[in-house]
Amino acid sequence: MPPRPPRLHPHLPPLQALRALEAATRHRSFTRAAEELALTHSAISHHVRGLEDNLGTKLFQRTGLSMTPTSAGMRLAEQVRAALDQLESALREASNTAGPPVVRLQVSVMADLANAWLIRRLPSLHALAPELDLHLRLHADISPPDPYSVDVGIWHQRVDLPGFACHNLIEDDVIAVASPSLLAQYPGFTVADLPKLPMLRFALRPWRDWLLLAGLPTDEPERGPIFQDAGLMLQSAVAGLGVATARTQLAHDYLASGQLVQIGTTRIPSSLHYWVTWREGNPREKAIQRFHAWLREQVAESVSPPSP
Questions:
Q1: Which domain holds residue 26?
Q2: pLDDT in tens, 126-158
Q3: For the whole model, what pTM was predicted?
Q4: Inter-residue contact 121 to 254 (CB < 8 Å)
Q5: 39 and 106 belong to one structural domain
Q6: What is the pLDDT of residues 170-203, one digit of tens each?
Q7: CA distances from 289 to 122, 133, 173 (A)
Q8: CA gap 178, 299 in Å, rounded
Q9: CATH assignment of the domain containing 199
Q10: Helix, strand or coil for residue 276?
C-alpha cells in the first residue's frame, strides 16, 4: 500500500509569498526584494499583506520610508531561509545522481584580492576540489554587502551578526614596489632616491608611515594618480607608471615573476583585513569550510616575498 501524502495545512501560504517575505526581510526593502525576485513592488506588498492576513500578525512595521521586520517577521524569515536552503540542497542532490555532486558557492570577494591574488590560484582549487563551482562577485566598498546574499564573503570589514562565522584570512605587511624598467631609468638608484620617482597614491593608505620608517621626508606626493583599488594600482606599477605601496600577499606573484621588485627593506603593518565570512548552518557549510581551508593553505604558501 503506497504511503499517504503528507497532510498540508489548509491555509499554507504559497512558496512565492514566503520567498517575498524572506527577501524583503533580508533587504529591509520591498523595492530591492522585488528587483531580486523579478517582481513588482506591489506584488511584494501583496504577498506580505496576504501572509499577515493568513497568520493574523504583523510581519513588517513601516518606519519613515523603510520597512522594518517585526520580531515575528524576523523569526519566520529565518525559518523560511533555512527551509529554502534545505530544499535547494535536496534538489541539488537529486540532480547530481549521475555523477559527483556539484556544489555551487556564491562568493563575494574584494576586487583587489580577486584580481591580484585569488583568480590566478583558482586552477589549483579546481584540481583539488572539482566539485566546487564558484560564482564570483567582485566587491569594492569598505562596508560589506548583505551577508545573507552570498554563501561566502571575503571583505575588509567583519560581520558582527549572530550566526555568522568570521575569520581573518591574511596577516601581512606593506612594502614599496616598482617595476625594474622604471628603476632602470635612475642609474645608481637607492632608497633615498625614491621621492624622485613618480609615486602612485592609494586612497586608503597614505605614504607617510612608510616614508617615516624608511627615514625619508614624510611629505605626501601632491601629484600622480589616486587609486581606490589596490590591485589596479599594482598593475599600474607593473606597467611602469610609478612606485607603489602594496601588501606582501598581493604583490607576491609579481615579485616572484620579476615584474616588480621591492624597494629597500621597510615594512609597515597593513591597516586593512580580509575577513572570510559565512552563515553557520548553511547547507553548503562543509564545502564552504573546504574552500576556507584551501584559502588558508594558499596564504601560507605565499607568506614571504622574495628578497629585495
A1: 15-92
A2: 999 998 999 999 999 999 988 888 899 999 999
A3: 0.73
A4: no
A5: no
A6: 989 999 999 999 999 999 999 999 999 999 999 9
A7: 16, 14, 26
A8: 23
A9: 3.40.190.10
A10: strand
